UniProtKB/TrEMBL annotation:
InterPro entries: DoxX, DoxX-like_oxidoreductase. It holds the Pfam family DoxX. Signal peptide: none annotated. This is Oxidoreductase. It is a multi-pass membrane protein.
Length: 179
């Protein structure tokens, strides 16, 4: 029995010394699971032309400010500067933050900002779009509720990057930042 425990300790000691593994896998999984999701969501908010980011689509306003947009008869020109700034900033965030995480650049700050983004996204889904049926519940037998289950896992993945940094295969490390 002690020989078995010794083998176990030896194996787990080797895992503890593999600090590079967890943040590298977290960034890889983020890229594999969420990068295209966020980039595609950003694309749906772009207006026409090369400066489409500065003239967001009506869908952008419908996604981010559903009740306010409905209240003005779906006329984005009737919304104010505040709405435009939030829509443009949110759209930029959907492109920039995921790319920074995948590249491992300003990873901790980017992951923290992504957690804020996911939180706002979830609250908008609940209060703005009334998607309370998507909330789900924890400790049930269904692991696929889009808000509580899935987004909790997203936030955990991002939390790993906040705590551990980007890992050795990152621009943070190349630039000499403590990743």
């Amino acid at each position: 029995m002690s020989q078995l425990l010794g083998l176990y300790r030896h194996a787990t000691d080797r895992l503890e010394s593999a600090d590079w593994l967890l943040p590298t896998l977290a960034r890889f999984l983020f890229a594999a699971v969420l990068l295209v999701y966020f980039v595609n969501a950003g694309v749906t908010k772009l207006g026409d032309g090369p400066l489409g980011i500065l003239s967001p689509s009506t869908g952008a306003y419908a996604q981010i400010f559903p009740r306010a947009f409905e209240a003005v008869g779906y006329d984005s020109d009737a919304l104010g500067l505040f709405h435009w700034i939030v829509v443009v900033a949110g759209t930029l965030a959907e492109f920039i933050l995921p790319i920074l995480i995948v590249l491992g650049l300003f990873t901790r700050l980017s992951a923290l900002a992504m957690i804020g983004f996911v939180t706002v996204q979830s609250l908008t889904d609940l209060f703005g779009h009334g998607q309370w049926s998507a909330l789900g519940s924890w400790f049930d037998r269904f692991p696929d509720a889009p808000i509580l289950d899935q987004r909790a896992l997203w936030i955990f993945l991002l939390s790993v990057l906040i705590v551990k940094g980007a890992g050795p295969l990152s621009l943070d490390r190349r630039l000499g930042h403590k990743s």
